[in-house]
Design brief:
- The chain is an alpha+beta fold.
- The chain has one domain (15-73, 81-137): Roll (Nuclear Transport Factor 2, Chain: A).
- The chain has helices spanning 29-33, 42-55, 58-63; strands spanning 80-92, 99-110, 113-126, 129-137.
- The chain has a four-stranded antiparallel β-sheet, with helices on one face.
- It is globular and about 40 Å long.
- This is UPF0225 protein GA0070610_2558.
- InterPro entries: NTF2-like_dom_sf, YchJ-like, YchJ-like_M.
- Residues 41-135 form the YchJ-like middle NTF2-like domain.
Length: 138
């Protein structure tokens, strides 16, 4: 029997958003991925970037990366499945801030094995919008 391809949030707009908000993807991070809205806070951008990894949206990941640290291309591992996001801590990154830091744990499965990526990500405003600057493992 042929294996059915796994549906991603981008393929099913009513599916809960991968960021963990509990809202449908289409009305949550999907709006940011489609360019219909901008992230209001550094944490919102972090959540939307996690969701972009989960749905395989490399174009959004590159668009939301600071121009000074953005790679020329980004290749995602098609065998890695993102399974959950925990926001551990935030420092600034609000509506009136120019910088912010978000510490998170991103859970995944690859090759049938669970894993976790932990990072302290730095965000800044570039031309008025939040972008990912860089991160360090925590």
């Amino acid at each position: 029997m042929a294996k059915r391809p796994r549906r991603r949030a981008a393929d099913d707009p009513d599916r809960p958003c991968p960021c963990g908000s509990g809202q449908p993807y289409a009305g949550c991070c999907g709006r940011l991925h489609r360019g219909e809205a901008e992230a209001a806070t550094a944490e919102a951008l972090m959540r939307s970037r996690y969701s972009a990894f989960a749905v395989g949206d490399t174009a959004y990941l590159l668009r939301s990366w600071h121009s000074s640290t953005r790679p020329g291309r980004l290749d995602l591992d098609p065998g890695q499945r993102w399974t959950g996001l925990e926001i551990v801590d935030t420092d600034r990154g609000g509506l009136f801030d120019a910088t912010g830091t978000v510490e998170f744990r991103a859970h995944h499965r690859a090759g049938g094995r669970p894993g976790t990526q932990t990072e302290r990500s730095r965000f800044v405003r570039e031309e008025g919008r939040w972008v990912y600057l860089d991160g360090s493992p925590d």
